[in-house]
Amino acid sequence: DAGVIQSPRHEVTxxxxxxxxxxKPISGHNSLFWYRQTMMRGLxxxxxxxxxxxxxxxxxxxxxxxxxxxxxxxxxxxxxxSEPRDSAVYFCASSFAGGIWTEAFFxxxxxxxxx
Amino acid sequence: xxxxxxxxxxxxxxxxxxxxxxCTYDTSESDYYLFWYKQPPSRQMILVIxxxxxxxxxxxxxxxxxxxxxxxxxxxLKISDSQLGDAAMYFCAYSSSGTYKYIFGTGTRLxxxx
Lengths: 115, 114
Description:
The structure holds two protein chains of two kinds. By secondary structure, chain A is mainly β. Chain A has strands at 5-7, 10-13, 19-24, 31-38, 42-50, 53-56, 65-71, 74-79, 88-95, 105-106, 110-114. In chain A, the strands form two sheets. In chain A, strands 2, 4, 5, 6, 9, 10 and 11 form a seven-stranded mixed sheet that branches. In chain A, strands 1-3-8-7 form a four-stranded antiparallel sheet, with no helix packed on it. In chain A, strand 4 (31-38) and strand 5 (42-50) form a beta hairpin. The radius of gyration of chain A is 13 Å and the shape is globular. The model of chain A has no long low-confidence stretch (mean pLDDT 93). In chain B, the strands form three sheets. In chain B, strands 2, 5, 6, 10, 11 and 12 form a six-stranded mixed sheet that branches. In chain B, strand 10 (88-96) and strand 11 (102-104) form a beta hairpin. The chains are: A mainly beta, B mainly beta.
């Protein structure tokens, strides 16, 4: 397996624009996580899905953020409208939660810059 | 709510020496997992070692070992024979079977001096 795949690797956008980050989890994993990493706040869990269902979105900062997982092999994180304070590295991770526990495997992250 | 605390923002170690990174956590759950992740400048998150809470034996992976003190809720990482390639941010993480989510500490930046 190629691991967790995120796209794009880098995104620069203007304030007010819509941004969509994409993630393909590892095949067979049933849990997917979106994290945001900043110098000030470290790694924050934004939302996680189990079997494609959002379980906990309490980390989503505000209504401008939304996440979907239409099937087991794809998820998106959308920011609309984007603001400069959204600039961060966004990580997607997946794991298998069940009888045999696995660690979270991370993608390489998307560095988002909002100007 | 579960929390993970790393009280050392930065640590330094001489090459070939041993260093210990600290981590404490807070939880009321009994079944959980603890992890140490490494994040080099490439920003890729790499699993270093994992520990199941029900196991009393401390996990070991080559030069990396943990000191897991369940009663004290402490989970420290020991790196022996430190190498230049060990320089990175190290994150302690907690995950429980009840919530499936992973909670991370704020990280410790490790510098390895030649």
